[in-house]
Amino acid sequence: MPPEMDEMPLSDDPLFRATLDAPDRVPPERFSLRLHDDTELGGNWYYHGCRHGRLLLLNWKSGLGCRQILIWDPVSGDLIHLSPPPQLDALKGVFFQATVICAATTAAGDHVHGDNCKSNPFKVVLVGTDRSTAFAFVYSSETGDWGDHAAETPVGNCISLGCRCIQIGDFLYWMLFGYDNNILEFNLVNHSLSVVYVPTHIHEDHDGLYPITLQEGTELGLIVMSRSCMQIWQWMIDLDGLPGWLPLEPIYLDNLLHLSAGECVNPTKVLGFSQDYNELFVASSTRIFMVNLESLRFKELCKMDEFLDSPDSRPIYAVYPIASFYDADSSSSSA
Fold this sequence. Notes:
five-stranded antiparallel β-sheet, disordered N terminus, about 45% strand, mainly beta, DUF1618 domain-containing protein, Neuraminidase
């Protein structure tokens, strides 16, 4: 099943929108997560994306930091509650981003996709920064613990860490925002952190920076938005072994999506990215689209006023694509 569109503002229950048309469209009421039923923790729940059929949330409270981690299968309804690593007691002022990944691999080290993916072991990676240093912790469902040590690396003067995470093989990537905008890299094999530097001229006067994958998920890319122009840069290693960024052909979303002048009053936003399907979710002032980065085919998913007129009226901050197998005649699923 292609990705479900999951519009999930912070500290609220998720809204779901299927990308398929009837009769294959999965009804949104099929998914239910009542975060506010848990009154003991307090604080707020924050959504941190979905990968391999699992969605991850963090409970965070000012002055106390991360208090609980929740892993949710939206299709089956299964929930897994995790306590944060004990080392976070000394990092209560640090806001962490997180992701969940399937830990099942082949003999060649490749991830195993298939019907049993969600029953396979998984890992949770927490990353955060105190403005000068980045930290990372890894939980393994196979060992049931976070390990004894945190990975660390200096990051300069970093103001915040982006919420979107992409995976390329054994590496995870997040945006580092600050006086210099760079990319944080985490190695899943040796549990080390490093920084991929982005030259200032690439992102001067930008309206949004978004890491993506290119070349069928094998290469790191960076989207730099300027109004409705989407400039994609590819991270390359040249024949001399020197790294650098190569600009690709810019995509003018106002022309591609046939946006009216009124829809371009505000810069076009990238709300989410589906690695498995190479689909980008973008929003104009009035509509949300799904765009395939390879073919540039697009589909209008919905209009913004559909949510403004609903009882759950709220702004849309992000889209987390969820791909899963769904049996309409059963409450069970696999992905």
